[in-house]
Amino acid sequence: MDRFKFTLADIIGFITAIVFGVVCYFSCNFLPLGDTNIALTVAIAIALALWLLSFILRLLKERTSRRFKTGIIAEGLCLFLFAVVAFFSLIVFSHFFTVYLHKKDISSRMIENIDQAENMFAAYDEYANDRIESYEKDLNTAINGQNANLNGLTKMGFKTDTVSAGPYRAQMKRKMDMIRGTLFPAEYTSLKTSATDWLTRVKKDVELWNPVRLVNDVNMIDAEIIRWKEELKKYSSVSDKMEGEDVEAFEYAISFDDVTSLFETRSLPPVLGIVLAIVAFLCLLFSYFITRRHPRYPGLKSLFGRVDTVLVGGGNEL
User: Fold this and answer.
1) Which of 82, 191, 267, 297 is the most exposed place for a label (fewest CB within 10 A)?
2) CB 212 within 8 A of CB 124
3) H/E segment holding residue 317
4) One-character DSSP codes across 239-277
5) What's this model's pTM, rounded to 2 decimal places?
6) pLDDT tens across 219-228, in order?
C-alpha cells in the first residue's frame, strides 16, 4: 500500500478547521457570556468533527480499490454526516457575526458605562474638596469669633484649654490633616489608579474589538463600578465625619446601559456568516473534490445500474 502523504489541500482544510473552531469558540463564549469551558468543548468538537469527516471522505475516495459499492455508500454516509454537522455548526459559527453587527451599539454602551465610572472619581474629588473647603471655612469662622462666642469653638470640637491642647490654629491644622486623611486615605490613591488603569484597558478592548477580553470586561464592569462606589461611600461615611460637620455621604447616580443582551440575543444567521461558513466548508472539502478515485473505479452507473457484474482488465469480477 502506498504511504499516505499530506497535500496542500489537506493543510488548507486543517487550517480552515482551526480558524472555524476559533470563531465558534468566540460565538459560544458570547452565548453564555463567559463560560469558557463549554465554549472550548463545543468549538473543539465542531472543528474536529468537520475535519475528520472531510479527511475520511478524501481517504474513501482515494483509497477504495475494491468493494466500490460499500465504499460509495460509506462515502455518501460521511457526506450526509458532514452536511448535518455543517448545518448545526453554521448556527454556532454565524452567531459571532450576529454580535459583530451590533459592534457599534455595544461599543457605545460600553464607552458610556466607562465614562460613568471615570466621572464618578471626578465627582468624588469634587465632593471631598468641597467638604474640606467648607470645613476649613467653618473652623476659621469659629476661631475668628472666639471672643464673641466660645460655643462656636466647642461645636467645632476645639479644646478651650489651649495650654494642654495647644493654640487654636494648631488644633485647626490637626483637624484639617484628619479630614484630608479621612476623605483621601492612602487606599483611595491605589483604588483610583487601579480603576483608571483597568478602565483604560477595557476602553482599548472595546475600541479594538478584542473578543477574547471583551466578554470578561462586560461581565465585570457593572460589579466593579458598584464596588468602587461603595468604597468611596465608605471613605465619606457620615459616621467618620468631623465634629461640627453637617454633611451627607458621597452619592453618585449610576444607570448602566445593558450590553449583555446584545451578546446573547439569537437571530437568523446574517448573510456574512452564511457566506463565510460556506467558504469554510468548501475549503474543508477541497481535498475531497480534487482527489482522483482509484483507477479501478468502474463508475456509479456500473455500480448501481442493472449490470450484474463488471469486468476489469483480465476479466476479474468486481
Assistant:
1) 267
2) no
3) strand 316-317
4) GGPPTT-----------PPP-HHHHH---SPPHHHHHHH
5) 0.73
6) 888 889 999 9
